[in-house]
Amino acid sequence: MVGLKEELLKSIWHAFTALDLDRSGKVLSHNLCTVLNVPHDPVALEEHFRDDDEGPVSNQGYMPYLNKFILEKVQGNFDKVEFNRMCWTLCAKKNLSKSPLLISDEDAFKVWVIFNFLSEDKYPLIIVPEEIEYLLKKLTEAMGAGWQQEQFDHYKIALNTSREGLSAWELIDLIGSGQFSKGMDQQTVSMAINEVFNELILDVLKQGYMLKKGHKRKNWTERWFVLKPNIISYYVSEDLKDKKGDIILDGNCCVEALPDKDGKKCLFLIKCLDKSFEISASDKKKKQEWIQAIQITVNLLRAGSPPPHKEARQKRKELRQKLLAEQEELERQMKELQTANENKQKELETVRKQLEAAAARAAEEEKKRLQTQVELQDRFSLELEREKMVRQKMEEQVAQKSSELEQYLQRVRELEEMYKQLQEALEDEKQARQDEETVRKLQARLLEEESAKRAELEKWHLQQQQTIQMTEAEKQELENQRMIKERALQVAMQQLEQLELERKEALEQYEEVKKKLETAANNTKSWKDKVAHHEGLIRLIEPGSKNPHLITNWGPAAFTEAELEQRQKSWKGKKATSE
């Protein structure tokens, strides 16, 4: 509300200063209440404007009434153009130049409103050269002409030598004279002023004809669309007389391109919380421009930022205030150095006078010495030594003061160099302003590319999230199986190590049995040789029958029972024969 009050005060100031308050103060107050939709208070009005010595005779008497009974009750639900037109009507006749202008009265009114927007927040109102350059550049760009920087620099130099800026009426004369729009007809200049007025005053970010699909009948109708910081309004035509509806924008809205369908091309969709709108642009370029403009507007709403032109105006004001503060600080330091330099000069002059006085005294002493040379030789010598010491101290003081003076002069030279660097910085700022428009276009293109890439990245991000969720489940299952297999592997490794130990023990036992078998085989062979001489009783051990084995002197399983009976019969027969 503070910013709104400041904007209202600028227009009211023009109307106030153009009227005779004693005769027309009531009229101004009544009109303000009407256009600002503020309830009339006839009692307060008559009380304030009563015919006595306490009535308002200056703005000091009128401003308290204006603030208390009018401005503090403004809610913002009024027509700004109608308010400005009322103030313009009260002040234009008295202040507008009588000389013929290349612009119409309507265009002069719009320039006056733009002046109130760009002027400094101090009275009497003026527009500084930087804002004049900004406005003329906007008009030149809207006319499709080239900006003449050199021409404006000459004009700025001539302006700075006489005053700080221009009043509203001088700005109207400047634009109406055609000095910076040579070669352009009145219609072109009027269209440029209207375009800049729509952007800076009416906050129109973009406007144009497009086709809109109906929500009920689903038919396509051509409408004139007007984009503002928080709303898109559409009308039957560009005269804005027959309004058909609004699209309320907020941080939850989004805009996206649509493929061609139903014979319609260059389609895009505006999604809001309660409703969506299908729109068809005239060509691909217009489609992209509208998508980009709407997306930028939604982003500003999400960030809570003001419109770009208002933010740029605030930054320019802050930069001017910063440079002014730095310049004032530099001037203050220069004054301090100058004062210090003057003080040092006074001190040096005092020392010089002291030296001259000391020299005069020395000459007088010298004269006295010549007169009393014989009588006061000793005293003179003492005085002479004292005078030499005084002179030496004074010379040292002079040298010291001279050194300090040289240091201060060096600081003065350094500050002069800093002043030159500040001027160069100001020149760089002018160049930066020239590049501002190029950077803005580049930013617009980058924002467009960023918007497309952001949509694509969001799609990829969603797919990646789904893939990650599936992969996480599979990964968990595989991790469980891996843990089970690792535990089984550990058990198997332990069993394998146990089997390895058992195999080694069995192998050792096998080696021991093998050695014992070899030893037994050797012993058996020697016994075979011995027994071979005894009646052929020895035989190789072969698989025996399944009958029970007998135990003999040669060990188990040597003979079966039948073989033993046969052997016994054979022995008995041989024994009987031998007898």
Write up this protein.
Residues 203-299 form the PH domain. By secondary structure, the protein is of the alpha+beta class. Among the domains are: 1-95, no CATH class; 206-306, Pleckstrin-homology domain (PH domain)/Phosphotyrosine-binding domain (PTB) (PH-domain like, Roll), CATH 2.30.29; 411-442. It has 14 helices and nine strands. The chain has helices at 2-18, 21-35, 42-48, 59-69, 80-95, 105-118, 129-143, 149-160, 168-176, 186-200, 284-303, 308-371, 377-531, 561-578; strands spanning 206-213, 220-228, 231-235, 243-248, 254-258, 267-271, 276-280, 551-552, 555-556. The strands form two sheets. It has a seven-stranded antiparallel beta sheet with strand order 4-3-2-1-7-6-5, with helices on one face. The longest helix has 155 residues, at 377-531.
Rg over C-alpha atoms, rounded to the nearest angstrom:
56 Å
Taking pLDDT < 50 over at least 5 consecutive residues as the criterion, the unreliable ranges are 52-59, 535-540
**What's the mean pLDDT score?**
82
Structural class: alpha+beta
